[in-house]
Amino acid sequence: MIPAEFDYVRAGSVDEAVSALREHGDDAKVMAGGQSLIPLLRLRLAYPEVVVDVGRVAEMAGIRKDGDSLVIGAMTTHHDVIHNELVRAHCGLLAEATETVADPAVRHRGTFGGALAHADPAGDLPAVAVALDAEMVVAGGTGRRTVPASEFFVDYLQTAMEPDELLVEVRVPTLGEGWGFRYEKFHRVAQSWAIVGVAAAVRRSNGSIAEARVALTNMGSTPVRASRVEQSLAGAGTDAIGAAADFAAEGTHAPSDLNGKTDYREHLARVLTRRAVMAAAGVG
Ligand SMILES: Cc1cc2nc3c(=O)[nH]c(=O)nc-3n(C[C@H](O)[C@H](O)[C@H](O)COP(=O)(O)OP(=O)(O)OC[C@H]3O[C@@H](n4cnc5c(N)ncnc54)[C@H](O)[C@@H]3O)c2cc1C
């Protein structure tokens, strides 16, 4: 289908983008890589009056290290995240999960910030952001603010951003010495969306698990932190992983659809959590 008519604004800077968003409010939509937005426009599920293209805002792309965090520009493409040396060295969980996103064509256009701002519960990267306690840096009319990932994803395709705000960059704490990680994704066919996914990072110390971070993809309208699993693993031996993973579906509200009913997804969450945590802990 052909999208409804809209005006097009190409922003040259964050300030230009924010002022266009402020001017048009609810009638404007940001376009990053366009991989999710353009299909929505074509299906007329979205019909903004103005599209604000941030594709050429140089300050929103690139990756740098700042202390114990990586700062990833919202416009950094999935391809660039996967192949970035800093990400591979300090945040391998993000590289591993991003490699499972879609196909090479989508990964060359789609962006890290776009995937987070889109807030699709089946998207792979929101769960990684939640597991790693990432922080979103958002620009608006009154300046910039930082939103923790745990508060950023509000509901299905909804974030804590206001219509006149722009996601500029994401601060992702690095995984230092002793951390292992794994993203487990269960999907129907290669290169498709997750039916369920699990992002796990585990820090081992003296043969036991000192700390574990686990977050689930597509087990509710937002990514879900598997807190009970994390609590059960803290200070435990690796022989506790199976019992801890049994708590994975606790507090989730998994959808029931053509790809799987709720109880099937709950089963997958338990199985994938066990696999992800075992791999992250270097067991088996
Ligand atoms: C065929 C196909 C398969 C896919 N498979 C997967 C998959 O397996 N896993 C997965 O995780 N994703 C998948 N995706 C989605 C992909 O990751 C997209 O790249 C991503 O969802 C959107 O990124 P984008 O840069 O293209 O954003 P856009 O499509 O440009 O924007 C998406 C939404 O986010 C908003 N937005 C974008 N950037 C910003 C910003 N900086 N500030 C504020 N709002 C912003 C837009 O207004 C829009 O509402 C798939 C997409 C396609 C087309």
List the helices and strands and how they pair.
Elements (H helix, E strand, L loop, with lengths): L6 E4 L3 H11 L3 E4 L5 H6 L7 E4 L9 E4 L2 E5 L4 H6 L1 H6 L1 H7 L5 H6 L2 H7 L6 H7 L3 E6 L2 E6 H4 E3 L2 E2 L6 E8 L5 E8 L9 E10 L2 E10 L6 E2 L1 H7 L7 H5 L16 H19 L4
Parallel strand pairs: 1-3, 2-3
Antiparallel strand pairs: 4-5, 5-10, 6-7, 6-10, 8-9, 11-12, 12-13, 13-14
The chain binds flavin-adenine dinucleotide.
The site of flavin-adenine dinucleotide (FAD) has 28 residues, from strand 2, helix 7 and strand 10.
Question: What does this 3D model show about the protein?
Answer:
With 284 residues, the chain is an alpha+beta fold. The mean pLDDT is 97. The N and C termini lie far apart (50 Å). It has helices at residues 14-24, 37-42, 78-83, 85-90, 92-98, 104-109, 112-118, 125-131, 149-152, 227-233, 241-245, 262-280; strands at 7-10, 28-31, 50-53, 63-66, 69-73, 135-140, 143-148, 153-155, 158-159, 166-173, 179-186, 196-205, 208-217, 224-225. The strands form four sheets. Strands 4-5-10-6-7 form a five-stranded antiparallel β-sheet. Strand 2 (28-31), helix 2 (37-42) and strand 3 (50-53) form a beta-alpha-beta unit. The longest helix is centred in the C-terminal third of the chain and has 19 residues, at 262-280. Residues 29-37, 54, 74, 101-102, 106, 110-111, 113-115, 117-118, 123-125, 161, 166-167, 193 line the site of flavin-adenine dinucleotide (FAD).
